[in-house]
Structure formats: C-alpha cells, structure tokens
Design a protein that fits this description.
The chain is α+β, with helices and mostly antiparallel strands. It comes from Gossypium klotzschianum.
Length: 351
C-alpha cells in the first residue's frame, strides 16, 4: 500500500489541537494507520503541552448535544454519539446536560469520553464517577480519552482513503481490460467507451475484480511498527499546586539479580540495574529514560522520583513504583504518571 499523506486540516479534524495537527502534518506521510497512530500518541503525550490539550477539548461539543457545524470533525462526532442519542430519554438528556454544566464549572473544560458504542446511561454514570476526581487527575484521564477519539478518527480517515484508492484502481483496471477486449486502445476512445458502457456492465466489471481471488500472493505476517518514543515514559503532576511538576529527578531501573524477582522485605542489594535517569521538564514529563527499542525486555522495573528534593516539606522523601512487564507485553508502551501532593501520591497505568 502506498504511503498516505495527512495534511494539517485532516489532522485537526482528528484532534482539535493546532500543535498536534502541525506536528502530524510534518511527520506525514505514513506507511500504515498503525504507524500514524503510534506517531500521534508520541506527539499527543510527549510534545503537546497542557494548553494544546485544552484546545483539543474545546473543539468537542458536549455529550448529548448535536454538532452545529458540518465539518468532518462534526460529522464524526455525531456518529460517535449516535448510540448515546438513540438511547437517551428527554429526562436523561436533561440530566446529562445538567451534569455537563457542573463538570465544566469544576474542571474548566467539557467532559471528554470516547462515546462510540456507549449508551446515554453509561456515559452519565461515567460522568458522575469522574466528577469526584481531582482536577489534575481528571486532566490526565481526559487526555487519554482524547487519544482514543483521535485513534478512532485516524482509522476512519485511513479506511476511507484506502477504500477510495482501491476502488479507483480496480475500476480503472477493469475498464481497461474490458476495453481491450473490444479493441479500444486509444485513451480518447476509451473515455467514450467508459461513458456509454451500460450501468450493469460497469457494476459487473467492478464486482468481478472486487471478488476475484488474489492468487500467488501469500498472506503477509503482521509487522510490529517501529517505536517513535521509549517504551517506558512518565509524567508528574503536582496536585497541591494544580500544575505539572518540573525539575523532579527520575530514575528507571530493571531487576537483574539471580533471583527471578524482588520480594517484599527481601534484600535487593545489587539487584537493580540503572536503565536511565532524567529530570522532568516544565510540562512535568521526563526526558528519555531508556533507549528506543522495538521489543522491551520482559521483567521487573522500578521507576523512582526524588520528591524530597523537589519539595523538602513533602511527606515522602522519594517515591518508587515497581511493576512487571510480561513477554506478551514487550511491544506495548507503558506510561507511568505520578499524581503528587504533600501527604499522598497515586499512579496508574497510562497508554
């Protein structure tokens, strides 16, 4: 398949951040949709700042409301919310509207969720659950939901483009073959042949080519797309200040002892080997903690944050998170965000 180019306008329809759209257009063309999605994730999570995130959120209509414009983004949004709108009652839509307003007042942006295939009741339940989150935590969740929407729209964009290219190519080949049967080799005569060919004959020609078996072409084994960022990344948000935590020292280590894994209360001297270290930038993101490798070595990893140096008054002098990556997960990406406050911290697996 030929590489597919994504311009800035198309990228903006997939994600309403101008930063994201410009970066995607610069990275274009893409050999496949999976590669485009991989690049999109790298741009969205590692290169677009919080202002860019909020710009993308603002491009969405509120859940339960029909888009007012007729842009591609609006059309996609309408399709994504079709299940919710079809399953909503008048009272349910009113409740959804009320909770949307409460959410915006608390968090300052629209409630964002990948609504495709979800009922109005499901979305309302998720909205109520997430309303209790802290703003900085909710910002991270909303950014992940935006990426789900972006991925969905990129797949739609590539599917439509590939289908159009494929149909056009098969149609041209079919007509040329049919014309050659009748001895029409001149492009000028071929044009008139195409124009006057009966509709049922044109449909039949296309149908034959669409259903013809692809003989002599063995199935290709699935290929793993090359990474565009390290397989393990992190992002630190300071809940007490309501902003990213810049200047925190971060260390990534891997367990390489003769023991298969560290044990609770056990001695780990010499077991942890440093993979890389960095310091979070102004957006709270760490630099490169390890090499960009396609296949991540399975095993136990530890990522540590020097929280005591960042804030001497914090309850934790440092925070370490230990996690295990299975062999079946070696091609995945692991984003380990940390939500920090003076007397607590929390984390979760990001995308």
């Amino acid at each position: 398949m030929e590489e597919i180019k994504v311009d800035e306008k198309e990228a903006l329809a997939c994600c309403g951040s101008s930063q994201f759209a410009k970066q995607m257009a610069l990275a274009s063309p893409f050999p496949s949709v999976d590669h485009a999605i991989s690049v999109a994730k790298d741009i969205w999570f590692d290169k677009v700042d919080v202002i860019g995130w909020l710009e993308a959120f603002a491009a969405h209509t509120r859940i339960g409301e029909s888009p007012s414009s007729h842009t591609k983004s609006a059309q996609w949004s309408k399709g994504e919310q079709s299940t919710a709108l079809a399953t909503a009652t008048d009272s349910g839509l009113q409740e959804l509207s009320d909770w949307n307003a409460r959410y915006r007042q608390k968090f300052g942006h629209v409630f964002l969720i990948c609504a495709s295939g979800r009922s109005a009741a499901e979305i309302l339940g998720e909205l109520k659950n997430r309303y209790s989150n802290r703003p900085i935590h909710e910002l991270e969740i909303a950014s992940q939901e935006q990426m789900k929407i972006t991925e969905l729209r990129l797949r739609k964009l590539f599917s439509a483009r590939t289908k159009a290219d494929s149909t056009g190519s098969q149609y041209s080949t079919a007509v040329a073959s049919k014309a050659e049967m009748f001895g029409f080799k001149s492009p000028f005569i071929l044009f008139f042949f195409l124009h006057f060919l009966k509709l049922e004959e044109r449909v039949g020609i296309i149908g034959q080519h669409l259903t013809a078996p692809l003989e002599g072409f063995p199935a290709k084994a699935p290929q793993v797309q090359a990474r565009t960022r390290p397989p393990i990344t992190t992002h630190v948000l300071d809940v007490s200040r309501g902003s990213p935590a810049a200047g925190i020292e971060v260390r990534l280590e891997m367990w390489k002892s003769s023991q298969p894994r560290p044990s609770f209360g056990g001695t780990d001297i010499g077991g942890w080997v440093l993979e890389g270290c960095s310091t979070t930038d102004r957006d709270g993101r760490s630099g490169q903690l390890m090499s960009i490798v396609d296949a991540l070595s399975p095993g136990v990893y530890r990522i540590s944050f020097n929280t005591g140096k960042y804030n001497p008054g914090v309850f934790f002098p440092y925070v370490s998170i230990v996690f295990e990556i299975k062999d079946t997960q070696k091609f995945e990406h692991f984003h380990v965000p940390l939500l920090l406050s003076p007397f607590s911290f929390s984390t979760y697996r990001g995308s």
